[in-house]
Amino acid sequence: MDHTEILTRYVTSFVDELSHSGLTDVVISPGSRSTPLALTFAEHPNIQHWVNMDERSAAYFALGMAKQTKRPVAILCTSGTAAANYYPAIVEAHYSRVPLLVLTADRPHELRDVGAPQAIDQIDMFRNYVKWFHEMALPEASSSARQYVRSKASRAYSVAVGGNAGPVHLNFPFREPLVPDFTLPSLWEDRSKAYHAHSIGNKVLDENQLHYLATRFSHYSKGLIVVGPQEDHALAKAVVALAKQWQLPILADPLSQLRAGHHDKEVVVETYDSILKSEQVRTFLKPDFVLRFGAMPVSKPYLLLMKQFSDIDQYVVEAHDGYREPTGKETTFIYSDPISFCEKVMAEAVSFEPDWLQTWKTCNEKTKAILMEETTDALTEGHTVKHLAEAVPEGSTIYVGNSMPVRDLDTFFMNTPKSLSILGNRGANGIDGITSSALGAAATGQKVTLLIGDISFYHDFNGLLVGKQYEIDMTIVLINNNGGGIFSFLPQAKQADHFEVLFGTPLHMSIQKMVELYDGKYAKPATWDEVKDVLEKSHETKGVSVIEIETNRSENVAWHRQKWQKIEQELLAYLEG
């Protein structure tokens, strides 16, 4: 068996096994050393390959696709700094628990550490940000080598999805020549299961553990159920049923999947971020305990509530393991399937102060009325969210950028009966790769509307190339306040001598020209009627449509603060009365 046949049977066994394990998509960035795998993925009949020339964009594109499908997506690049460009997306995938199969080609061992081109140290280069790393053996001719490579492919897939999902990294050294021969017989195996079949069960609490927790809960008068960012739509029905039985409010993060959908929302409080901005209001609404599902919420006022009162007992439910608790509070971690926990703990007799839920519901209604009130004809960042939520189609996805967009979504995205997915990159909370991630989510065929700021858009606007290449349909609502709007709300804004250069960072760039560079559709509405019109049309338009909403940073800060001040006054009048 010559080198080419050895190489061919090795790489086809690997790719074929990924397919048997469940892989359907791979994002490839062009390069020479990755040729064996790139050609094999392109040749495999059951795997779709996407080509994205920029490795940073490619990794985020795969991340968005994996978020949307809840299945692993593979990324493949050549050796050298190409792999280093994956790093930000791998960090995000680690913290947001997204399954990625990271496949990096490498020089063979004799070309490492000798000054050969495109040869860097790729051994375990992503360190603690991957669940598993393996340096693959060089291709060999033996049947045991093909068993080995199938075993590693199957293991990589199962590790990526098992427990808390996340990225895994396999590094492939290849010697030249690099081109496989697909005319060889029997390259793909006809099997119905993976090399290593795996079954993943759920953690559940036994009766004694449930009774012990219920006894602790029964000693409290007031509680809050909090659902932070998480992507399991099935949790909504279970956690709402628990909250209704216990007569407790649910503070629902915008990425909790609780604000949108057909489930009952009677106890879902969506304006809690605005409610809790006032320190005095927080004192009135202080709970005895918090039961949290999902990651820590976006809301800073909620974080301040938890830090302000050291005697609030905290319980955090995690499906597998993990330590997502940034307040430093004493915490009881409950490692159990969240839905199972809700269903089983309801069987325990627990009751709380009867007026507590109604107080929160009244605060929610008063706050919502103020937030939704349109006091100006000017386009505002907050009410852009309102009109976006009204326009997005049933069954679609809202992908939200970090900094101000996700905070405006938290404040102004109200409960809706529409069935929607709300996604964002809230693992590491970076502004990089947002456009590419949203395009990856849209590449699955799902209708996606991206809400993003101008700095984040600029940071990843080359990601629009993959949208052009594959004619991906997506609407981008771009808030352009000519700089980093979130800094205007922070103490740095008072440093007038250096603020604009160091923090405001105005771009002074034409968004229209940036969009047209990639053949996108562009609109810049001037009134709310025009906003509604272009939003509705964009969801019926092929390709990427960008709607620029131009605002003023200073006016935006004043508008937000006026609403928060009015909310505080009205809530204190109600709570003190």
Largest sheet, order of strands side by side? 2-1-3-4-6-5
- Per CATH, the superfamily of the largest domain is Thiamin diphosphate (ThDP)-binding fold, Pyr/PP domains
CATH topology of the largest domain: Rossmann fold
The structural domain count equals: 3
Shape: globular
Classification by helices and strands: alpha/beta
Helix content: 40-55%
Using DSSP, what is the number of strands? 18
On the 0 to 100 scale, the average pLDDT is: 94
Broad CATH class of the largest domain: Alpha Beta
Give the low-pLDDT segments.
none
Radius of gyration over all CA atoms, rounded: 26 Å
> What is the tally of helical segments?
22
Task: Briefly characterize the structure.
Residues 188-399 form the Menaquinone biosynthesis protein MenD middle domain. Its EC number is 2.2.1.9. The chain has 577 residues and is an alpha/beta fold.
